[in-house]
From TrEMBL:
Official protein name in the record: HID1 domain containing
Chain positions covered by the region annotation Disordered: 297-316, 572-681
An example Gene Ontology CC term for this record: Golgi trans cisterna
Skewed-composition ranges (Low complexity): 643-654
Comp. bias regions, Polar residues: 590-600
InterPro entries: Hid-1/Ecm30 (IPR026705)
């Protein structure tokens, strides 16, 4: 883009800056203007012509010159915002300064000594903007920069359409302009969709990239759960100081949710037209999730009761969080707004699935991880949105893509974060009764997935995918097993009819998890058996009638339940079980699970390509921290159960990698081995074996097995259909123990997950910004960059 001349001049200026040992005066315009006035350099040029080593050299050897460069570049942006950027030259200066700051900022953040630089005041930059030397009033450089970016994002003829009728009209006054009339896209709170404009989209994108770079200071601080962790850049930008907060929030949200990568519904259209909207949508999604990085556990998010009509935002509520973006998000309440947001996110999440019908027919988007974070934030901060999502079967348009991503990423070490966020979203949804009810809808969409073919409902799809993750995912997914099974427990009381394929998968999991070597090889493993027994009990007690397939599978595999009831607890048996484990390190065998053929057109889940970059994640809290137990009463309302007494007050949230109190309790009586390694003891096995909830299943077997055996004897070997027919019409009314109350484990916000989301989100942003590579090779502290 830039001509060779302007590139040479720009490079010459950079060399002068790195070689000058004397400070250059801020008033020396002839020198400073070389960086932005006469050049037309693309952002890629700026990254190529300003090497990292030279930025660091200036930072170390002539710090005052780096300070002046930043100060002068911000000053130019402020001037552009003040004047309204009418001439092409002014627009070019603003873009050049924006690119230069995007290049330099990460090197300022990586050095702790420089961290306060942007928050120090600059003499002469009064808040009144008159330049009077009143230091009381001076604004920190960061504030001036952020306000200039906000103004420039609503600058007529630069980033938004001008509303002037004719050229005779005086230029729109930037200061009196009501930016709510210039929202970028129709949707929430705005009905008018402006004419698409390639140049405006590109200019917005550059400014958003600079904004994201400002916010990225968070990447240079190590993960600390107690840091209260408000990002000063985000805090200021999303405060009442920014008069464009509402229109900008709305512009970002609407730009993302209105985007249709298919190209107006015409297949292959994207091959004819380059889609300049996608980079803007991607940038908007990233800025949006960063501004919404707000620990909901630490501040009461407004609970929603009364609705008001007339405005898009609900005004009836308490003021809510200081962060206006979080505040606005939590107060959206109109049905049509919810519909617009949900349809938009579902359309974009389903995009990679469309690829599989007509390969290359639509443009494949890459920002599904950002969309999942956005969806999570919406559900977490706006309970009305969550209820809206679950009110109709539209929730399945979110569920199917999530299951597709989970299944596709299960073997790929570099996509552990994607696996976690998908599971977290399903855990959040599964805490609501409606989710379980919706899963009964038949599954007819045939997205090619590497899973066994089945005929059934969305519940079958969910369980079959979870089985696949547990039995053929990689080792690093083991911490998610508790979460996966908790989701199945939460929905189980509402599942009307599981297919035979699914019933067999559930029993295969029970078989795998109840082998003695698995039960005795880690302190937590028996929890998985408890979860599965809870699933069976819920279905038998509450949905017996439609679930003859599951009942039949339980009868066929009855030996597993008898083995559990007779689990050995003597030291020699424990020792023998662990010996067996040393010989078969395979975590879960596939044997005994009739895999069946995978769906037509599906590709097996592939591991990461060697050398793929990934970012490290902090440990997630255990399931007892992630969820809170609630009991469903007769009328369907939930009441929270008091936490069990053993979780005393000393059970503060465990720091990174530290086990929870309950887990330490379990370790104590058993840590008998000298090496300090955990080892199981008879007392430990007895302590939980006595609590296995086997009564309902044993009673079922006691009643039904003799009848089933009789049918088999009378009819000979006629396969399973007569038995299934008998079970379909059978009843156990009055024969089973009194139904237990339904227990739901609802997700609860906590600082551990807030920290996990922060590291995950910034890791995604780091890896996805490769052109230009904004943060690449800088000294980030929030996570480590690893190669697979």
């Amino acid at each position: 883009m830039g001509s060779t001349d302007s590139k040479l001049n720009f490079r010459k200026a950079v060399i002068q800056l790195t070689t000058k040992t004397q400070p250059v005066e801020a008033t020396d315009d002839a020198f400073w203007d070389q960086f932005w006035a006469d050049t037309a350099t693309s952002v890629q040029d700026v990254f190529a012509l300003v090497p990292a080593a030279e930025i660091r050299a200036v930072r170390e050897e002539s710090p005052s010159n780096l300070a002046t460069l930043c100060y002068k570049a911000v000053e130019k942006l402020v001037q552009g915002a003040e004047s309204g950027c009418h001439s092409e030259k002014e627009k070019q200066i603003v873009l050049n300064c924006s690119r230069l700051l995007t290049r330099v900022l990460p090197y300022i953040f990586e050095d702790p000594d420089w961290r306060g630089f942007f928050w120090s005041t600059v003499p002469g930059a009064g808040r009144g903007g008159q330049g009077e030397d009143d230091d009381e009033n001076a604004r920190p450089l960061a504030e001036s920069l952020l306000l200039a970016i906000a103004d420039l994002l609503f600058c007529p003829d630069f980033t938004v359409q001008s509303h002037r009728r004719s050229t005779v009209d005086s230029a729109e006054d930037v200061h009196s302009l009501d930016s709510c009339e210039y929202i970028w896209e129709a949707g929430v709170g705005f009905a008018h969709s402006p004419q698409p404009n390639y140049i405006h989209d590109m200019n917005r994108m550059e400014l958003l990239k600079l904004l994201l770079t400002c916010f990225s200071e968070a990447m240079y601080l190590p993960p600390a759960p107690e840091s209260g962790s408000t990002n000063p850049w985000v805090q200021f930008f999303c405060s009442t100081e920014n008069r464009h907060a509402l229109p900008l929030f709305t512009s970002l949200l609407n730009t993302v949710c209105a985007y249709d990568p298919v190209g107006y519904g015409i297949p292959y259209n994207h091959l004819l037209f380059s889609d300049y909207r996608e980079p803007l949508v991607e940038e908007a999604a990233q800025v949006l999730i960063v501004t919404l990085d707000h620990d909901s556990a630490s501040s009461a998010s407004p609970t929603v009761d009364g609705t008001t009509t007339g405005t898009a935002m609900d005004d009836a509520d308490p003021p809510g969080p200081e962060n206006l973006f979080v505040n606005y998000l939590s107060r959206i309440h109109r049905e049509e707004d919810f519909q617009f947001i949900l349809k938009g996110i579902a359309r974009l999440l389903s995009n990679p699935l469309l690829q599989t019908y007509l390969p290359n027919s639509t443009k494949k988007i890459q920002f599904h991880q950002e969309l999942l974070v956005l969806f999570w934030k919406l559900c977490d901060f706006n309970k009305k949105f969550l209820f809206f999502v679950l009110k109709s079967s539209d929730v399945l348009d979110i569920l199917v893509p999530i299951l597709f991503f989970l299944n596709d990423a299960r073997a790929d070490q570099s996509r552990v974060g994607l696996m976690h966020i998908g599971v977290f979203i399903l855990l959040l949804l599964s805490g609501e009764r409606n989710f379980g009810v919706r899963l009964n809808k038949p599954y007819s969409v045939r997205v090619p997935m590497d899973i066994p073919v089945f005929t059934g409902t969305h519940a079958d799809l969910l369980i079959v995918v979870f089985h696949k993750i547990i039995t053929s995912g990689h080792q690093r997914l083991q911490p998610l097993f508790d979460c996966l099974l908790t989701i199945v427990v939460n929905v189980s009381p509402y599942l009307k009819s599981l297919s035979m394929v699914t019933a067999n998968k559930l029993l295969h999991l029970l078989e795998a998890f109840s082998t003695t070597w698995f039960l005795f090889s880690a302190a937590q493993n028996h929890h998985l058996v408890f979860f599965l027994l809870e699933v069976f009990n819920n279905i038998i007690q509450y949905q017996f009638d439609g679930n003859s397939n599951l009942v039949y599978a339980i009868i066929r595999k009855r030996s597993v339940f008898h083995q559990l009831a007779n689990l050995p607890t003597d030291p020699p048996a424990i020792h023998k079980a662990l010996q067996r484990r040393r010989r078969t390190p395979e975590p879960l065998s596939r044997t005994g699970s009739q895999e069946g053929t995978s769906m037509e057109g599906s590709r097996p889940a592939a591991p990461a390509e060697p050398g793929t970059l990934k970012t490290s994640l902090v440990a997630t809290p255990g399931i007892d921290k992630l969820t809170e137990k609630s009991q469903v009463s007769e009328d369907g309302t939930l009441r929270s159960l008091e936490p069990e007494p053993q979780q005393s007050s000393e059970d503060s949230s465990p720091a990174k990698g530290e086990p929870s109190q309950a887990w330490r309790e379990q370790r104590r009586p058993s840590s008998s081995s000298a090496s300090g390694q955990w080892s199981p003891t008879p007392e430990w096995v007895l302590s939980w074996k006595s609590k296995l909830p086997l009564q309902t299943i044993m009673r079922l077997l006691q009643v039904l097995v003799p009848q089933v055996e009789k049918i088999s004897r009378v009819l000979g070997v006629q396969g399973e259909s007569p038995i299934l027919r008998f079970l379909q019409h059978g009843t156990l009314v009055g024969l089973l123990p009194v139904p237990h109350p339904i227990l739901i484990r609802k997700y609860q916000a906590n600082s551990g997950t807030a920290m996990w989301f922060r590291t995950y989100m910034w890791g995604v942003i780091y890896l996805r910004n490769v052109d230009p590579p904004v943060w690449y090779d800088t000294d980030v502290k929030l996570f480590e960059i690893q190669r697979v």
